[in-house]
Design brief:
The chain has one helix spanning about 1-25, and strands at about 40-45, 45-55, 60-65, 70-75, 110, 115-120, 125-130. With about 130 residues, the protein is an alpha+beta fold. The strands form 2 sheets. A 4-stranded antiparallel β-sheet has the order 1-2-3-4, with no helix packed on it. The chain is globular and about 45 Å long. The relative contact order is 0.14.
């Protein structure tokens, strides 16, 4: 009986430690993503990233990652400050009149029907958006 209680206590302690580790990545004031829900966080090659759900594909796409040098990407809650308007019927990237004139075609990703310029997260093969067209 004593052994059973020790095993159960250790199991509960481990579950509590796992919950505390998850809370440190999201949802606490000192975490990299204090306003993110736990289901929004994905680890990409050991780097915690905040994600958004792409309704078209059903996949979660990283939009902000906590790399050792700081944050990469955009805050999903502040997209209004970085949106740009694409010209009507114009190209999305690479031409002077396009929404992203300095972006290469491989830097553009469409997220929920909106074209976004992305950057590569160092050490991964994931791209995160840094600005999106309206």
């Amino acid at each position: 009986m004593k052994t059973l209680s020790m095993i159960a206590g250790t199991g509960l302690l481990m579950l509590g430690a796992f919950g505390a580790a998850q809370a440190q990545v999201s949802g606490t004031p000192n975490s990299p993503f204090p306003n993110a829900a736990p289901h929004e966080i994905r680890t990409v090659n050991g780097i915690p990233c905040r994600t958004v759900l792409d309704r078209e594909s059903g996949a979660r796409i990283p939009v902000q990652c906590a790399v050792p040098t700081g944050m990469v990407g955009m805050d999903p809650g502040s997209t209004g400050s970085i949106l740009v308007s694409p010209p009507a019927g114009g190209a999305i990237s690479g031409t002077p009149g396009s929404a992203f004139p300095n972006a290469a075609p491989h830097e553009i990703r469409v997220i929920n029907g909106v074209p976004c310029r992305t950057v590569l997260v160092q050490g991964t093969n994931e791209r995160v958006p840094v600005e999106c067209a309206r």
